[in-house]
Amino acid sequence: MNYRTLSTLLVFSLLILASCSSNQRSYEPTVEMDVDSTDTASAQELKLNTKTPEGRKFIRTADVRFEVKNVMSATEQIEDIATNYGGFITYSNLENSQENSESTKISRDSILVTRQVVVQNSMVLRVPNERLDSLVRQFNKLITYLDYRIIKMDDVTLQFVANRMKSQRLNTYNNRQAAHIDNRGKKLGESSNAEDRMLDRQLQSDEVSVHTMSLKDQVNYCTINLTIYQEAIVIKSIQPNFNYVAASKPNILSRIGDALIQGWWILEEIIVFLVKIWGVLLVMGAIAFLVIYLKRKYRK
């Protein structure tokens, strides 16, 4: 009896463990699916939140300034990028600006002019509204140092509504004035005044139409104000010293002073040259020491 009872209990325990493990395995994928579904829902929600609200109109502008390796090469690449994204360039000003300049007298009739020049280009790009973000990201491969990148969105939906309502009022007024002029065409004074007022309202209507067209253009095409520059370039050039009078022979003291200055410069160049080849001098000194040491050793 004890044996049968133990066997029954053992079989019953194994069945319970098997059922628990199967329930646990069936539960784990459900948890993973819930996590995945939660992540997907969060990503979709984030994607929806970053969209421009439907039914609204925005004027988007960008102000970007950064350093590049070479301004000329970067300008050509930016022109190609703008064309590939359906945009165009309305302004480009490539120029050199001199930051520092220093003149050093090297002789009585010559001076050394050292200039620090910065090359930069200021550009204005117009690109389709829906391609602004993609185009701005293309600048990343050109940037060596970013000064700033500002993107603004101005909601002009109410301006469109105001222009439409104002245009409707002006059209209604013009139609009524035209009918009024036709009915009282025999009275010249009243007709002239009414036509002047109607002409004034027509001019206002034209201004509203032009303003609406300008808003549509700014909404459809974004404006990018871009400034690129490169690291300052140092330019050295020897120029004549116009303050020196060639006809007058300098006195001996001035000539001795110039000779001392030039001699000092030569000495500086010699010292710099010796410092540059210190490794060669060290090897030559070691060889000379070794030769002298061996000679003395053999003599002994």
From TrEMBL:
One matching Pfam family: DUF4349
Please report the stretch or stretches of sequence annotated as the DUF4349 domain. 56-291
InterPro entries hit by this protein: DUF4349 (IPR025645)
Keyword Amino-acid biosynthesis set for record: no
Q: Does the keyword Transmembrane apply?
A: yes
What residue stretch is flagged as signal peptide? 1-24
- Looking at the UniProt entry, the stretches that span the membrane are 270-294
- Keywords associated with the record: Membrane, Signal, Transmembrane, Transmembrane helix
Name of the protein this chain belongs to = DUF4349 domain-containing protein
Q: Which organism is it from?
A: Williamwhitmania taraxaci
Q: What is the lineage of its organism?
A: Bacteria, Pseudomonadati, Bacteroidota, Bacteroidia, Bacteroidales
